């Protein structure tokens, strides 16, 4: 019926619940993806577990609310300590089971409560490692976007193993000729959670379970970039409609236009204290490309002797270094006297947590010593920072392989890697890698490659680029399906 000049009812904005797996490396990408949806006319409410919710600062809350993102909590049965940190697949698996049991009921109650109060949910965007979110969404007849946090290469390996398309075992070797683009992998390059592949699927519940119902999702999104993993993505797309929407890094960082505007800051920080200004002030005094930035992300724990070797490798390289050592890791640092000697020489700064993107975007930083968590890898690649890969567990060895041999933006330590139980990487090896990346012809070539990938990714993320268009298409399709 014509409305004869009456103002028409505005179409309500689609409302999404964004449900990350509750660790730093999984919250950041879903939050950053959500931030991109807001200007496209989508409302988002972020769900955090009680532990994460109480860990974030008042400043983060203010930022989230300034971005007009809603915040709600979802119970996981671990109010006091949250998801376990430190390397260990079994502990994760146990946590994941509890979260599924308690979280799915809590999610259903929340969706119902929102519907009752006129805040109906149109879509749940959830981390692929908590596929039970899809089951809850289906109960309510709402849309689902399955968000894969890790790389297409790693997703392709997991998918291929689950579906029996990719052989894994001592006898078959690890050259997955099946997945185009994927380089020949040695055992040390595989995601560590596959090492014990046997008849009992339990250790793989977390990772292979990602594909248990993925084909029912309305969208399958991946925090990667088409140009970065084109063939792997194209292979996966034969089976599931994988769509790349990464990197989930605020555009001002990619465009070298970031400032300290609060709403542009990246992710949420669940670790304290946050030494942002200390880092910025220290970095400001250092020459271009002179600083080695060291971080092992939010989960990995190094053995004390590994911390000592790392410290001496950094020290002996004679480069400046900025090293993130989480509070829970501090007791493993070498003796105080040695550290203060380094500090006195103004060579090294050790902080408990920082704004990693601010640091990586600083001109002073010449190299990133990283555990190769997928976020860190993509952040280093996107900001053109050469890397020294010291992978610990999970997807990190495979990401390290790409850093060294596929994108050629860094080197990987020859021995060791492998977390608390793994072999220690010696100080000489660390020093050798730092020299290779920071100095000489090899360093120059790595820097040229890094610059190349930085430009490729900046293009892809912008309006009209592969990821930029995919984000726009997702928003448009969500708006149209929500009517
Ligand atoms: C985990 C897994 O280890 C990783 O392999 C997987 O792909 C995602 O989940 P995490 O180990 O924490 O994540 O590493 P990473 O993926 O690199 O994520 C860490 C995040 O914390 C990054 O976004 C990084 O920018 C941020 N960070 C790290 C800071 O903001 N400040 C710091 O001081 C250190």
N- and C-termini, Cα separation: 18 Å
Structural class: alpha/beta
The number of distinct helices, counting runs of at least 4 residues, comes to: 18
| Low-pLDDT sequence parts | 197-201
Q: How many E strands? A: 13
The whole-angstrom Rg is 22 Å
Largest sheet: 7 strands, parallel
* Portion in beta strands: 5-15%
Mean pLDDT: 90
Protein described:
It is built from 18 helices and 13 strands. The strands form two sheets. It has a seven-stranded parallel sheet with strand order 3-2-1-4-5-6-7. Strand 4, helix 5 and strand 5 form a beta-alpha-beta unit. The chain starts with 14 loop residues before the first strand and ends with a helix. The chain binds uridine-5'-diphosphate-xylopyranose. The site of uridine-5'-diphosphate-xylopyranose (UDX) has 27 residues, from helix 1, helix 13 and helix 14. It holds the Pfam family UDPGT.
What's the SSE blueprint?
Blueprint: E1 15-19, H1 24-37, E2 43-48, H2 50-55, H3 58-66, E3 70-73, H4 89-116, E4 123-127, H5 132-140, E5 143-148, H6 152-162, H7 205-208, E6 219-222, H8 230-236, E7 242-244, H9 251-254, H10 276-284, E8 291-295, H11 304-317, E9 320-324, H12 336-344, E10 348-351, H13 356-360, E11 365-370, H14 374-382, E12 387-389, H15 396-406, E13 410-412, H16 427-438, H17 440-461, H18 466-482
Parallel strand pairs: 1-2, 1-4, 2-3, 4-5, 5-6, 6-7, 8-9, 8-11, 9-10, 11-12, 12-13
The structure holds uridine-5'-diphosphate-xylopyranose.
């Amino acid at each position: 019926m014509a409305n004869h000049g009456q103002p028409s009812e505005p179409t309500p904005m689609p409302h999404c619940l964004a449900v990350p797996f509750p660790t730093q490396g999984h919250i950041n990408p879903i939050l950053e993806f959500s931030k991109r949806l807001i200007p496209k006319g989508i409302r988002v409410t972020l769900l955090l577990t009680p532990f994460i919710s109480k860990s974030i600062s008042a400043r983060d809350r203010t930022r989230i609310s300034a971005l007009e993102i809603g915040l709600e909590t979802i119970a996981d049965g671990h109010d006091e300590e949250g998801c376990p940190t430190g390397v260990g697949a079994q502990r994760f698996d146990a946590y994941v089971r509890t979260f599924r049991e308690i979280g799915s009921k809590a999610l259903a109650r929340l969706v119902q409560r929102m519907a009752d109060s006129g805040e109906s949910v149109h879509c749940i965007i959830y981390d692929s490692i908590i596929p039970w979110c899809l089951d809850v969404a289906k109960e309510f007849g709402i849309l689902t976007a399955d968000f894969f946090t890790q790389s297409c290469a790693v997703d392709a390996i997991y998918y291929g193993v689950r579906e029996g398309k990719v052989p894994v075992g001592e006898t078959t070797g690890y050259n997955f000729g099946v997945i185009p683009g994927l380089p020949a992998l040695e055992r040390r390059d595989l995601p560590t959670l596959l090492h014990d592949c046997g008849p009992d699927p339990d250790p793989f519940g977390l990772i292979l379970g990602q594909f248990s119902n993925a084909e029912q999702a309305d969208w399958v999104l991946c925090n990667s970039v088409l140009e970065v993993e084109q063939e792997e993505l194209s292979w996966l797309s034969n089976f599931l409609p994988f769509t790349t929407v990464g990197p989930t890094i605020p555009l001002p960082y990619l465009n070298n236009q970031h400032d300290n505007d609060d709403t542009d800051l990246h992710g949420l920080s669940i670790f304290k204290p946050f030494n942002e200004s200390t880092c910025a002030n220290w970095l400001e005094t250092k020459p271009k490309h002179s600083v080695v930035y060291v971080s092992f992300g939010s989960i990995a724990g190094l053995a004390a002797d590994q911390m000592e070797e790392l410290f001496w490798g950094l020290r002996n390289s004679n480069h400046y270094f900025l090293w993130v050592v989480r509070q829970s890791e501090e007791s493993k640092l070498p003796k105080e006297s040695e550290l203060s000697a380094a500090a006195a020489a103004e060579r090294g700064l050790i902080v408990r947590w920082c704004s990693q993107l601010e640091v990586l975007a600083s001109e002073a930083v010449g190299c990133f010593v990283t555990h190769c968590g997928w976020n860190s890898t993509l952040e280093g690649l996107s900001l053109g920072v050469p890397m020294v890969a010291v992978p610990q567990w999970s997807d990190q060895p495979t990401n390290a392989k790409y850093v060294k041999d596929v994108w050629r933006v860094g080197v990987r330590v020859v021995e060791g890697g492998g977390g608390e139980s793994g072999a220690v990487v010696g100080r000489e090896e660390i020093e050798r890698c730092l020299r290779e990346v920071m100095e000489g012809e090899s360093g120059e070539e790595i820097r040229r490659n890094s610059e190349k990938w930085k430009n490729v990714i900046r293009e892809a993320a912008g309006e009209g680029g592969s990821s930029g268009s995919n984000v726009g298409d997702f928003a448009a399709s969500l708006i149209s399906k929500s009517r």
